Amino acid sequence: QKEVEQNSGPLSVPEGAIASLNCTYSDRGSQSFFWYRQYSGKSPELIMSIYSNGDKEDGRFTAQLNKASQYVSLLIRDSQPSDSATYLCAVLRTGGYQKVTFGIGTKLQVIP
Amino acid sequence: KAGVTQTPRYLIKTRGQQVTLSCSPISGHRSVSWYQQTPGQGLQFLFEYFSETQRNKGNFPGRFSGRQFSNSRSEMNVSTLELGDSALYLCASSLKTGAGNTEAFFGQGTRLTVV
Known about the structure:
The complex is a heterodimer. By secondary structure, chain A is an all-beta fold. Chain A has no helices and eleven strands. Chain A has strands at residues 4-5, 11-14, 19-25, 32-38, 45-50, 54-58, 61-66, 71-76, 85-93, 99-102, 106-111. In chain A, the strands form two sheets. In chain A, strands 2, 4, 5, 9, 10 and 11 form a six-stranded mixed β-sheet that branches. A five-stranded antiparallel β-sheet of chain A has the order 1-3-8-7-6, with no helix packed on it. By secondary structure, chain B is an all-beta fold. Chain B has no helices and eleven strands. In chain B, the strands form two sheets. In chain B, strands 2, 4, 5, 6, 9, 10 and 11 form a seven-stranded mixed β-sheet that branches. Chain B is globular and about 35 Å long. The relative contact order of chain B is 0.33.
C-alpha cells in the first residue's frame, strides 16, 4: 500500500464545473496536509494547506480533511482551463524529524 | 521576497560522472528538502537538512548525498551517474513553526539528463 494514494487521472471536467480531487494516506501520525499544483514542465506550487478536520476555503478552492477516514480532498469550483494541471497531495508527519510524502498526482483537464 | 533558487536549471552529464546541484532557500527558512521527480515515480524524497544537519533521508543509494551550509544554502551531489538518475530535482524550503506545521515552497528545479 502506498503511503499517499491518488488517482493519476486524467480527470476531465467541463469549464465552470466543480472538480473533486481525492487523496488517502496510510500514516495515522500525519499532522499536516497540503495540495500543490504543478503545470507541465514547472515546479509544484503550494495552493492549500489544512491541519484540522473539516473544510478550509480559499477563493475557488476548498480543502477537506477527515483524519478518522485518513482522507483529504480538494474541490475546485467554477473550474477554468487555466486550472488544467497535475495536483499533488502531500502529507507531513513530524516527530523528531519531518517527513513529507507526496502522492503521484492527479492530472486535471478542464474542457472549454 | 525572493523565492527558492536552484542552479543550474538544466544539466547534461555522461554516465559515470558526478554532479552538484545548488539550492538557496527563502530568506529565513532553515529547512531544505530535496526531491527527485520522474514521470513514473512521482516526487521521491531524498533528504532534509535543518541547521546544517541531515535530519531525514529517503531510500536512495549512497551515491546521493547532500550538505547544508551555515547560511542555509544546500547542495546535493550525485556520484557515478546512471541513466536512471535523469530526472527533475527539486529543492523545497520550509520555515518550521513551533507547532511543526510547515509549508514547503519549491524552487524551479534542475533538469538533469544523463546520457
